[in-house]
Amino acid sequence: MESGRLSSTEKALIRESWQKVSSNLLQHGIVLFTRLFDLDPDLLPLFQYNCRQFSSPLECLSSPEFLDHIRKVMLVIDAAVTHLENLSSLEEYLTNLGKKHQAVGVKVDSFSAVGESLLFMLEKCLSTAFSSDVREAWTKLYGAVVKAMSRGWDARKEGE
Ligand code: HEM
């Protein structure tokens, strides 16, 4: 996976900024997904547990299964931060994760709203420490994660 584009300064900025987020992953994940449903309410029906559909983002955000999904997302980002020096070791996992998302009806395009929501959450968490350099570094890292996940959609098409 493309990690060469992240300079050592950018990696340091990512690690430093993630420290504050990782002190409470769930709390910050809730900020991320609240923003995501604001940006794209049509994503709500994709989350169904025991065939039950949520009638509002608030209802979704208070379900234990959905909170588990938030934790899962935050742990994947945490893994990317931990593996900044060796992002390619996550490539296969992320491609498979992409396949799973394709199977549940997620479109690759929806990941841009997730990226915006990630930056929104980081800005809320870091306040003035969220500099344009920090934003740029996170945009690159998130781009690498999405690139690897999006191979899951390509791989499916090839396998059909
Ligand atoms: C458009 C946004 C997204 C939607 C609609 C979505 C939807 C889903 C759904 C419906 C599931 C299966 C049920 C569940 O495990 O809760 C799932 C699983 C999962 N999602 Fe997402 N997801 C999104 C974004 C992400 C992102 C950005 C990540 C990580 C970077 C992620 C990580 C995971 C993980 C780790 C699982 C569990 C996969 C497994 O069972 O092995 N999701 N997602």
TrEMBL record:
What GO biological process, any one, is recorded here?
cellular response to hypoxia
Family matches, as InterPro entries: Globin, Globin-like_OT, Globin-like_sf, Globin/Proto
- Catalytic activity, per the record? Fe(III)-heme b-[protein] + nitric oxide + H2O = Fe(II)-heme b-[protein] + nitrite + 2 H(+)
Example of a GO cellular component annotation carried by this entry: cytosol
Gene Ontology terms for molecular function: GDP-dissociation inhibitor activity; heme binding; metal ion binding; nitrite reductase activity; oxygen binding; oxygen carrier activity
Globin domain segment(s): 5-154
Entry keyword set: Cytoplasm, Heme, Iron, Metal-binding, Mitochondrion, Oxidoreductase, Oxygen transport, Transport
| Record localization | Cytoplasm, Cytosol; Mitochondrion matrix
Per the similarity annotation, which family is this?
A: Belongs to the globin family.
List the PANTHER family. Answer: BLR2807 PROTEIN (PTHR46458), NEUROGLOBIN (PTHR46458:SF19)
Job description of the protein: Monomeric globin with a bis-histidyl six-coordinate heme-iron atom through which it can bind dioxygen, carbon monoxide and nitric oxide. Could help transport oxygen and increase its availability to the metabolically active neuronal tissues, though its low quantity in tissues as well as its high affinity for dioxygen, which may limit its oxygen-releasing ability, argue against it. The ferrous/deoxygenated form exhibits a nitrite reductase activity and it could produce nitric oxide which in turn inhibits cellular respiration in response to hypoxia.
**What is the name listed in the Swiss-Prot or TrEMBL entry for this protein?**
Neuroglobin
Per the UniProt record, the source organism is Pelodiscus sinensis (Chinese softshell turtle)
